[in-house]
Amino acid sequence: MKRNKVALVTEGGNGMGKKFSRILQQEGFDVILATEINSFHTLKNEFFNEQSIFVIESDFSTSERLQPLYAYIKKKYGKLDVLINNAEIANGFGQDIDAVKLNEIKELYEANFFSVIRVVQTFHDLLKRSRKGIIVNITSTLGDIEKIQDQNFPYASYKMIAYSSAKAALNMLTVLLAKETQSENISVVAFDPVLMKNCTHNSVYFCENVQKKFVELIKNDDTSRNPIITLQD
Fold first, then answer.
1. Considering the entire predicted model, what is its pTM?
2. Which residues constitute the domain of residue 47?
């Protein structure tokens, strides 16, 4: 299979990065799976013999530490077609406001929100060199304000102050980025890959319908018209 498209998937140890990488590989992409140290060795071994998935140890905590990854992609491909912002952490399950620790919230926001801005800023110019660049911010229905207020929603009682609010902020960022990049031929969307009926905190189970939606997403030339995509029961 001739591969002339390149995708970058960020992975912070949640296990979904390899799911996205496999799907992108099947769709003809060269995939850069950029992973933090906590999952690097496991993923490196898993994809050791792959010809089109390249696992690279990365650090999303500062723009300077992202430069080696940027330089690698720029030198090898000169562009970036798809960016999957997937790296995230989750903490504070079931905490009431009096139990919330601010340092844990800051840690989560750094990984789930600020690093997304940092990665987009770093790879923006390579996305502009694509015929049709796509940014996919991995979100969660737990960050949907309307759903959390709906008593019929199975997870309405979940108390994840840091995680849910960070995903809500990510959704707003996605909408604003989508508006900004329309003139640059870059689509920006938020995608929720976990059906709530399959959700057990950090579930990475992808049903066939989710995979189909994801493939449609990375092939769709009109994704900028609908910047938020959510999948739930």
1. 0.91
2. 5-228
Alpha carbons within 13 A on the beta-carbon side of 30:
14
Q: What 3-state class would DSSP assign to 35?
A: strand
Q: How many domains is the chain built from? A: 1
pLDDT above 50 (res 201)? no
Report whether 9 contacts 24 (CB < 8 A).
yes
Of 12-16, 23-27, 31-35, 77-81, minimum mean pLDDT range: 12-16
DSSP string, 132-171: SEEEEEE--GGG-HHHHH-TTSTTTT---HHHHHHHHHHH
> Residues with Cβ < 8 Å from 3, sequence gap 6 or more?
28, 29, 30, 52
Residue 233 forms part of a structural domain: no
In a domain, 151, yes or no: yes
